[in-house]
Amino acid sequence: MIVAPAARFVAPAAPSPVRTRPVVGMVALPAGAAGWWLVYAQLPAFAAWLAYDALGLARGSAAGAAAEFFLYDTPKVLMLLTVVVFAVGIARSFFTPEATRRILAGRREALGSVLAALLGVVTPFCSCSAVPLFVGFVTAGVPLGVTFSFLVSAPMVNEVALALLFALFGWRVALLYAGTGLAVAVVSGVVIGRLHLERWVEPWVYAVTPGRAVVTEPRRDWGGRLAAGREAVRDIVGRVWPYVIAGIAVGAAIHGYVPQGFMAAIMGREAWWSVPLAVLIGIPLYSNAAGILPVVQALLAKGAALGTVLAFMMAVIALSLPEMVILRRVLTVRLIAVFVGVVAAGILLVGYLFNVVL
Amino acid sequence: MEIEVVGPGCANCRRLYQEVQRALAQSGQPATVTKVEAMEAIAARGLLRTPGLVIDGRVVAYGRVPPVAEIVTMITTALANP
Predict the structure, then answer these.
(1) Which domain range does residue B31 map to?
(2) Chain A within 8 Å of B58 (Cβ-Cβ)?
(3) Within 10 Å of residue A190's Cβ, how many Cβ atoms?
(4) Whole-angstrom distance, CA of residue A68 vs CA of residue A291
(5) Cα gap A201→A339, rounded to integer Å
(6) A350, CA 20 to 30 Å: which among A109, A162, A230, B14?
């Protein structure tokens, strides 16, 4: 049995050094927003000029189309990403996993799963913390199914995906993704809860007596919250930008070189097997939302059905091989299989639903 | 002084380790710094977010990489409150 060493906590004696004068923020923020908007509005014209005038590519050519796509999408997506991550970084400074755990501990399944799915969207969560978080939740009395609802919604319905969907495809698509993503998270949690699979969790997890090492973070002032936003941009955009550029490059290639309507044959509404195929291909792949969205955009432009493409996107983001490897520390292979199966089934249903309804 | 950097080895955990070394160099405080990477040990400390910074058995920060100046302050505070 693992017994934690007595871990006490001490509140930092010094005031948080992460403080900016709010007045600076009051001026810098609107100025920055205005500047951002000015640049953003010029992007299509700039990309076209760069591709056709500066680089001399022929209009209507595959290379020209691909180049224009790449030169437009790269700054556009990166700019959107920066804004969204900044805003969400600030919003997330209001939430902590510790508070989430307190809210969820001991909740009954149905309500708990719904709360968990919702909280998964707004609680800061890094996949490297998946294991400590899982153990911390489970040993604090959060039911297994409820914990899973959180684990599904946290990576899948993330702010990056939602904001980019909104920016690229409109609020209806973004809302659909959010709604169905939450539904998949809730249902997955309830199903797993009902199956009572606690015995398929690695035994050491339940043997842990966690030390009450909860450090109460000092209440942030607005300067600290703005700093949280900046930190989030440095951290997330700093990590994610290579994926974004790679994704846009693939999207650009598809955009320029794949014939119109080609995707309709294998990913269109008529091909009933396109949804399961998309989900199957998506599961082992891993990308963050920002990287996969340009691919999604290009696929849609080439005639792929919306349901199929969104199912593919969900499968890529929600289920990934790296995540399964990490979760193997706390879940037996059987439980991982059930987890993947339940979530995949939910995503499949969503894909079919979209193709039928839209 | 015993300092533990708790985390499974992600980029932030490595950064925290480096920042701790820099803070120790700045403050001149002798200390042993260990990296705790075993999942069981991380979970046993009750941390929900990594990386975590533990000084002499007390969790002083978690879920972020504090700037070097702040780590130095934490070290000084820990010295003053044994």
Answers:
(1) 9-54+63-80
(2) yes
(3) 20
(4) 18
(5) 12
(6) A109
ipTM value for the complex: 0.79
In chain A, what are the domain boundaries? Answer: 31-208+222-357
Where do runs of H (alpha helix) occur along chain A? 22-48, 62-92, 97-104, 109-122, 130-139, 144-156, 159-169, 171-195, 203-207, 222-232, 238-257, 262-267, 274-282, 289-301, 306-318, 321-327, 333-357
Percent composition of chain B: helix, strand, coil (DSSP 3-state, to 5): 45, 25, 35
**Any CB–CB contact under 8 A between B53 and chain A?**
no
Full-model pTM: 0.78
Helix (H, G, I), strand (E, B) or coil at A184: helix
Helix axes A109-122, A144-156, angle to 10 degrees: 30
Per-residue model confidence as pLDDT tens for chain B (82 residues) = 889 998 887 778 888 899 999 988 888 888 899 988 887 788 777 788 878 888 888 888 887 788 888 888 888 888 887 7
Cross-chain Cβ contact A17/B77 below 8 Å: no
Q: Tokens at residue A72, please?
A: 């437009």
B4 assigned to some structural domain: no
Which tokens is A69 given?
A: 């796509």
Q: Give the separation between CA B9 and CA A355, rounded to whole angstroms.
A: 42
Half-sphere exposure for A212 (CA within 13 Å, toward CB): 1
Name the one residue in this structure whose structure tokens are 């060493």. A5
Number of domains in chain B: 1
Chain A positions touching B62 (Cβ under 8 A) are 215
Q: How far apart are CA B79 and CA B82, in angstroms?
A: 6
Is B2 contained in some domain? Answer: no
* Amino acid occupying residue B48: L
Contacts of A215 in chain B (CB under 8 A): 59-62
